[in-house]
Specification:
This protein is mainly alpha-helical and 318 residues long. The chain is built from 14 helices and two strands. It has a two-stranded antiparallel ribbon with strand order 1-2. This is Peroxidase.
């Protein structure tokens, strides 16, 4: 599963990562700003809702932006930085693809008006992802807070750690396990592909050369994605309810109608088939597991205490 909104270890290292995650999670709390900025969450929600009301597709963009932040050195807002010669925004998985930066900047501006220097950009992005889910009929969850912002981007880590839309199931499972996420977490998070759009170049090979694909579905998708041009042409990841976070994505996989290769491999005779089948039958289970997986993803390697900083503006260090 490559989280592309519009286009996505040795045992001892894995264990030490888990230990690190366990020790830092305790520093995050849903009540972190209750005394220092009690109106933070409502202010963020109002700003994000306004942005999504102008362009509904932004909900998918913000969920993906949070995912691409957390998978690169943890949920630290490093993807938001653009004040250095090299940054995460410009790596191949994000350039001309990752979106929503301006909505996070807008939310930060509003929060700074009421609580200057208090709320991190990393936390604003985490809250924005939750509010985006709610805006497209998805689940809500309690966001743990207290993350601080990175003072540097990590483009090399972005290149090495972000999933690819061409990857096999074992490769995807390994990537998620490296971040402390289970196969069930991975499949649930992949359900965010029930919203958003993909660029033609990300699925062209599948619709023209793929074997594990419904012929009628492939034919329909070819109309909007020429064989040798139109790389950036957009197509909805899910055709039935493209603006609603629901379980139609999983129903499509059962019919070999996954748009990206990294979607369809989730139901291709492997270990995740049973989870896909379960979610296709039980929408409430999918939504519950999606919320739980988002919380778990938000726990990946946060900066807390005196680490990092609280940026005054999200796209530049103080």
């Amino acid at each position: 599963m490559a989280f592309r909104e519009h286009h996505v270890l040795p045992a001892f290292l894995f264990l030490s990562m888990l230990v690190s995650a366990t020790t830092t999670k305790a520093n995050l709390s849903s009540t972190f700003y209750d005394k220092t900025c009690p109106k933070a969450l409502s202010t963020i929600r109002t700003s994000i809702r306004a942005g999504i009301s102008r362009e509904r597709r932004m909900a998918a963009s913000l969920i993906r932006l949070h995912f691409h932040d957390c998978f690169v050195k943890g949920c630290d807002g490093s993807i938001l930085l653009n004040d250095t010669a090299t940054n995460e925004r410009d790596v191949i998985f994000n350039k001309n693809s990752a979106r929503g930066y301006e909505l996070i900047d807008n939310a930060k501006t509003e929060v700074e008006k009421i609580c200057p220097g208090v709320v991190s950009c990393a936390d604003i992005l985490a809250v924005a992802a939750r509010d985006s889910s709610v805006a497209v009929s998805g689940p809500s969850w309690t966001v743990k807070l207290g993350r601080r912002d990175s003072t540097t981007p990590y483009p090399d880590v972005a290149l090495s750690d972000l999933p690819r839309f061409t990857e096999s199931l074992p490769e995807l499972i390994a990537r998620f396990e490296h971040k402390g996420l289970s196969e069930r977490d991975m499949v649930a998070l992949s359900g965010s592909h029930s919203i958003g759009q993909a660029q033609c170049f990300t699925f062209r090979d599948r619709i023209y050369n793929g074997g594990d694909i419904d012929a009628g579905f492939a034919s329909t998708r070819r109309r909007g994605c020429p064989v040798s041009s139109g790389d950036s042409k957009l197509a909805p990841l899910e055709l039935v309810t493209p603006n609603q976070l629901d379980n139609n994505y999983f129903k499509n996989l059962l019919q070999k109608k996954g748009l990206l290769q990294s979607d369809q491999v989730l139901f291709s005779g492997g270990s995740t088939d049973s989870i896909v089948s379960e979610y296709s039958r039980n929408p409430s289970k999918f939504l519950s597991d999606f919320a739980s997986a988002m919380v778990k993803m938000g726990d990946i390697e946060p900066l807390t205490g005196s680490a990092g900083q609280i940026r005054r503006i999200c796209h530049a260090v103080n």
